[in-house]
Amino acid sequence: MSSENQDFNKTKAFLIDMTKCTGCRGCQVACKQWNQLGAEKTEFFTGEGYQNPPLMSEYTFTRIKFRDYEKNGQNEFAFYKEMCMHCNEPACASVCPVGAFKKTKEGPVTYDAERCIGCRFCMVACPFGVPKYEWSKALPLVRKCTGCYSRVKEGLKPACATTCVSAITYGNREDMIKEANKRIAARPEKYLKKLYGSEEAGGTSVIYLTALPFDELGFKPVTKRPLPSYTWQALRLVPGIFLTVGGSLSLLSWFNHRKERIAKEEEQRKSGATPKEES
Ligand code: SF4
Ligand code: SF4
Ligand code: SF4
């Protein structure tokens, strides 16, 4: 759930200026390295653009989409760095019955695998299609960009922002929006006169500047109203369902984790090690 009365302007945010992106994919590599994400079977995709891997997945928390276009008779390139938007009021957190998602006071929306029961409500609720499921695993969980929270809470920038030398700036959300508007005012011929993320889904911690209209780059058209308000409206129509489903799933989670703990202890006992006490 998001913290009540949170001043989102003071949270950290990304300003991603897609006109400065060179398509080097350093951010993709840094993300994989920091999050220890494995390789996956992939292919070059030539549908709405040209990219590899074709989609975000449990092994790919961010990816660069690429397209070319013609301007004044010249060939131009445009990129789009896709990732979790770290919404101010995250729909994923609002539907998760066991509170696995959390909007932190610093800005990133975190995910706690220990709590997750794999119900996939978050995947349905997220308007940006971000949470992915570990389909290939026996005990699958949901994976997504964590905003590098372990780095951010120690005062560091996210791995992708640290690696990028041109397109990504990271700082207070209000400063990022001011900086974005300053760039538009300074070069009106270069930029689209709109930001993506300042209001979408009630505002997000990822703000984009582009040269092309957002839909041409593959950005999702999203309402400006915070998504949890729709979630709660829908749930009000089904009295008691949320508590019932939430209660059952919490119980299921407790059983799952208990089962895992027992299996772990059993394994340790067999190997002769003393089982570690769970807190
Ligand atoms: S590291 Fe920066 S310049 Fe390179 S692809 Fe990522 S966003 Fe673009
Ligand atoms: S983009 Fe989706 S997964 Fe990320 S915080 Fe927003 S609702 Fe949650
Ligand atoms: S913030 Fe961290 S987890 Fe998210 S895309 Fe950047 S490097 Fe990956």
Strand order of the largest sheet: 8-1-9
Report the sheet with the most strands, covering strand number, pairing sense and barrel closure: 3 strands, mixed
Distance between the termini: 23 Å
Which percent band covers the strand fraction?
15-25%
Shape: globular
Uncertain ranges: 236-244, 273-279
CATH-defined architecture of the largest domain:
2-Layer Sandwich
Question: Could you explain the architecture of this structure?
Answer:
With 279 residues, the chain is an alpha+beta fold. The protein has two domains: 1-237, 2-Layer Sandwich (Alpha-Beta Plaits), CATH 3.30.70.20; 239-270. It is built from nine helices and nine strands. It has helices spanning 26-34, 91-95, 121-125, 149-152, 159-163, 173-186, 214-217, 227-236, 241-270, and strands spanning 12-17, 63-71, 74-82, 101-103, 109-111, 132-133, 142-143, 168-172, 206-209. A three-stranded mixed sheet has the order 8-1-9. Strands 2-3 form a two-stranded antiparallel ribbon. Strands 4-5 form a two-stranded antiparallel sheet. Strand 2 and strand 3 (74-82) form a beta hairpin. The longest helix has 30 residues, at 241-270. The chain is globular and about 55 Å long. The chain starts with 11 loop residues before the first strand and ends in a 9-residue tail after the last helix. The protein binds iron/sulfur cluster (3 copies). The site of one iron/sulfur cluster has 14 residues, from helix 1 and helix 5.
